[in-house]
Amino acid sequence: MSLKPQDFRLAMRAWTSGITIVTASDSGQSHGMTVNSFTSLSAEPPQILISLQTASRTCGLILKSGALGVTILSTDQKETAERFAGLIADADDRMAGIKVHTLQSNAPLLDGGLAWFDCRVDKTISAGTNTLIIADVAAVEVGPGKRPLVYSDRDYYQLKT
């Protein structure tokens, strides 16, 4: 008896996490997607790990460029999270009208976040329909003391103090 994907997804809805936008730029094209499968992997050397759908436009740009940006979202960026989660289709320009900056690479980082990571791809691992990306963190930036946007059970929340 094999596990049904919908049962797996239902159980994963119980997992609460922060929200990031992962971005890349190559040959004049920039794109990004909402990602909650982001984690620190190592402090020495500084590395992160993300999981992206292999067929996504963002994953393709990351693999072509060898670089990626990660923006940790704040509570006032719920609409941004939804925009990059598919409110605007993968084939369309999700970056239109979004204010961004860069650190060392050309990977765009979204203004208004809590923190930013500019990364270079170190390794990729195929995992089912996804690609795991291990990336070396080349530069970071920390924004003003805002609260993080949190995702659980298909909705966004803010932490209470």
Question: What does this protein structure show overall?
Answer:
The relative contact order is 0.23. The chain has 161 residues and is an alpha+beta fold. It has helices at residues 5-12, 57-65, 78-87; strands at 17-18, 20-26, 29-35, 38-43, 46-53, 67-72, 100-101, 109-110, 115-127, 130-142, 149-152, 155-158. The model has no long low-confidence stretch (mean pLDDT 94). It has one domain (18-158): Pnp Oxidase, Chain A (Roll), CATH 2.30.110. Strand 11 (149-152) and strand 12 form a beta hairpin. The longest helix has 10 residues, at 78-87. The protein contains three helices and twelve strands; from the N terminus they run H-E-E-E-E-E-H-E-H-E-E-E-E-E-E. The strands form three sheets. The chain has a seven-stranded antiparallel beta sheet with strand order 3-2-6-9-10-5-4. A three-stranded antiparallel beta sheet has the order 1-11-12, with no helix packed on it. A two-stranded antiparallel sheet has the order 7-8.
Index terms:
161 residues, alpha+beta, Pnp Oxidase, Chain A, 7-stranded antiparallel beta sheet, 3-stranded antiparallel beta sheet
